[in-house]
Amino acid sequence: MSFWEYVGNRHAQLLADTYQHASAVFQCMVVATLLGVTIGVVTYRTEWAGNLAVTSTATILTIPSLAMIGLLIPIMGLGVAPTVTALTLYGLLPIVRNSIVGLRGVDASLVDAATGIGMSRPARLFRVELPLAWPPILTGIRVSTQMLMGIAAIAAYASGPGLGNEIFRGISSLGSANALNQVLAGTLGIIVLALLFDAAYVLIGRLTIPRGIRA
Asked: Which residues, 6+ apart, have CB-to-CB distance to 27 below 8 Å?
């Protein structure tokens, strides 16, 4: 059976796996973004706190994904829970680092001007600092998403959702008629999803970043 015949025969299952993969990555990125930006906001003003936040999230990223999920299975069981936890933790580093860099890069004179017109600290943060720091934060989100697209395939090890199931089924049945087709379908599906997500981020950047800041 050719690859395209395999895709035609299995299109319903492939679409379901693709949707689950995209949904898992999207939901984990939402949580990772909220956590990462919050950590950045809390720590960027203090040198040691910012360094600790970056070092801690970088340490998490050094743990092999299979080992991470394997460690989470005895605690959370199989399925969605270990997948979501692992992906969220892996997605933190680029967002935390870029949030800190972006917030520290805001022109101090603009913050002083906002203070001078009577803005409170929360108002300065949400109306001045975070909007100006948004371009590097968005870059961090894009990097995290690309990483998680690949890492999410390992979720199949814990009976998690997504296209990794196609890849693992193909690997476990190497030598059979459709083994290569399964691995190829899962891999190409992840690549296409990664490109679609990245295109969406480019569009978001064009809609949310003023042209002067982009330049």
From this structure: 84
How far out from the chain centre does Cα 125 lie? 24
Tokens of 91: 């997605």
Tell me the per-residue pLDDT of 127-141, one tens digit each, with 9 for 90 and over.
889 999 999 999 999
Q: For residue range 139-182, list pLDDT tens digits in order.
A: 999 999 999 999 998 887 777 788 888 888 888 877 777 888 89
Instruction: State the Cα–Cα distance between residues 148 and 145, nearest whole angstrom.
Output: 5
DSSP code for 161:
S
Task: Answer for the pair 111, 102: CB distance below 8 angstroms, yes or no.
Answer: no
pTM of the model: 0.89
Nearest Cα neighbor of 145 from 201, 73, 209 is 201
Do 155 and 161 contact (CB within 8 A), yes or no? yes
